[in-house]
Structures are given as C-alpha cells and as structure tokens.
Design goal:
This protein is mainly alpha-helical. It is built from nine helices and no strands. The chain has one domain.
Length: about 200
C-alpha cells in the first residue's frame, strides 16, 4: 500500500468524527503501519518474554479507538498522540495487574537515566515511569503531555507543538524540564511512607 498523506488521514478522521463509519474502515489500513511502529516502540522497552505482543497491543488500542464517540480529532498527529496514550495505558494496566505489590508482585527498582530517552533499555519499569509522569501531570499537565507525545508517541517537536497549540520552543523547553524532573523523581525512588 502506498504511503498516505497527512491530509488524507486528517480528512478521514474528520469524516469519522462526523459519523461516517466507512471513513473508519478506510482509515485503519492507512494508519496501521504507524500504529504498529508505535506499539513496537513500547514493546522494545518491555522485559523479554512479555506475554503481550505488538499485534495484540495494536488491536487493543484499535478497540479503544473505535469506542471513542465524541473526540474532536484535530489532525493525524493528534490521532497518533491519542493512540500512543492508549497503548501506554494498556501496558501500564497490564503491568499493574501482573506486578501489583499487594498481590506479591515482584516489583524491582529500576534506575532511569538520560540515555533512556534517546535509546530505551529493554525492561524499563513502565509502571514506575507512569507513576512519575502522573505526579508531574498533577502540577504541570502540559509538561506531562509533552513527555507523552514525544517519548511515548514518538512525535517530533513540531508535531507536539501542533497538538498542544504552543510554539516549538515551548515544547523544547517543556521537554528539557520534564526530563530533568522525571529523572530526579525516578532516581529518588518511592517515598518512605510508601509500601
């Protein structure tokens, strides 16, 4: 299948939002390879032998996407950002269910350093990173969204700026500050009053 244009994806998204169910059927083959790429980015960060596979992650995200009824799709970058968010949520939920501390899960402390943002190490603790990202979102939602779009969604600075409706420089600054904050949060580990 030939590579689709960003405009084609945006047009199909808008038609789907307008109630055209045939647009969704046309959209999914067009975006499938990009969704697989996003899923693969997540899966390489998981421990070897993970029971959830790339195809299953794409399928689960697809099922969640088709259940969305009232989303105002802006463009293709927005679609991929939402898709990446779903994939992250799926993996975090999966990780929490398998390793939940109250059920005796074998939670292991993992150090995350700057290199993980450029080239993630296999087996990075996604649940712990998600907790840190949720903490960041409590006091600075935009910086958390920048991390989600750039790190998890694989969007460029320009694409993230489009989704957030801010300048590229704002995304660049938020990205730098959020990385430092997350690195400090992950390095310090859980608080003393946590189990």
């Amino acid at each position: 299948m030939a590579e689709s244009s960003p405009q084609e994806v945006t047009i199909l998204l808008q038609a789907w939002r307008g109630g055209d169910s045939a647009a969704l059927e046309k959209l999914m083959p067009v975006v499938h390879s990009e969704l697989r790429r996003l899923a693969h980015r997540y899966m390489v960060r998981e421990k070897a032998g993970h029971t959830l596979q790339t195809t299953a992650l794409v399928n689960e995200a697809y099922l969640r996407l088709i259940d969305l009824k009232r989303i105002e799709w802006q463009d293709r970058a927005h679609f991929y950002a939402i898709s990446a968010n779903f994939m992250r949520r799926i993996l975090v939920d999966f990780g929490r269910s398998r390793h939940y501390r109250k059920r005796g899960g074998d939670v292991q402390k993992v150090t995350l350093d700057e290199s993980v943002f450029a080239k993630p190490e296999p087996g990075a603790d996604l649940v712990r990173l998600d907790d840190a990202l949720s903490a960041l979102a409590e006091f600075d939602p935009r910086k958390a969204k920048v991390v989600e779009l750039r790190f998890f969604g694989g969007l460029s600075e320009v694409e993230a700026a489009e989704v957030l409706k801010v300048s590229r420089e704002t995304v660049k600054r938020d990205w730098r500050l959020a990385k430092v904050w997350l690195l400090c949060e992950l390095r310090d580990g859980p608080k003393k009053d946590e189990p």
